[in-house]
Amino acid sequence: MFPSHFYAKATLLDPRYKKAAFESNSNVETAQQEVQYEVAELLRNRMLGTNNEYMEVISTGQQTSIQSVFTVSSVSTSSTENENLLDYLQAKVTTIRSETTDTSTAVTLVRQYMDLPYLNLKEDPMQFWKNHFSVLDPLSELALKYACIPATSVPSERIFSKAGQIVSQRRNRLSPKNVNILIFLNKNLEI
Asked: 35, exposed or middle or buried, with CB in 10 Å at 0-12, 13-18, 19+?
């Protein structure tokens, strides 16, 4: 994935900008589809976690109400064949159900988020996601993933440059401890 895709998703998931920051509708649609796909994957992974726990309960032989409904005694088959058939059918139905449900839920969540009013430019987008976590849970998790500040090397280069000014030919006998203190004070002191 190109970095521009990450920026597009981060912009779309910023409640202050959403679609307004894009120049073309095709870019908006692409970013929206990628977000929907990622939300569906997140929902699918959550569903698999709960299904694995359910399948573990069945495989250990513990009785559950769902298992007792499906394991009605048959005339000529053994109980292990019924359990294997039950496991197979349950996995198949869960897969089909989760694919359709996850995708439609993702589309609904993104549409619901897009219908919300834009956030004021001076408000905190993290507070927005915190307030709407219960309604837009998987989408808020995705927004927090893309809401990080892009890292740059500018601050470290400024400090390195300032260290070169502090430790010069005339001040070459400064101890490393004093150099660290001077750089710290120079960077953090308001002048």
From this structure: buried
Q: How far apart are the first and last CA of the chain?
A: 44
Calpha distance 146→83 (Å, rounded) = 43
- Give the tens place of pLDDT for each residue, 99-136: 567 788 889 899 999 999 999 988 988 999 999 988 88
3-state secondary structure of 102: helix
Q: In Å, how far are 18, 72, 176 from 173, measured between CA atoms? A: 55, 88, 9
| Residues 71 and 79 sit within 8 Å (Cβ to Cβ) | yes
Residue 149 DSSP code = P
pTM: 0.54
Phi/psi class of residue 120: alpha, beta or left (left: φ > 0; alpha: ψ in -120 to 50)? beta
Dist CA 140 CA 128 (whole Å): 9
Q: Using an 8 Å Cβ cutoff, are 49 and 43 in contact?
A: no
Q: What are phi and psi of 64, to 5 degrees?
A: -125, 165
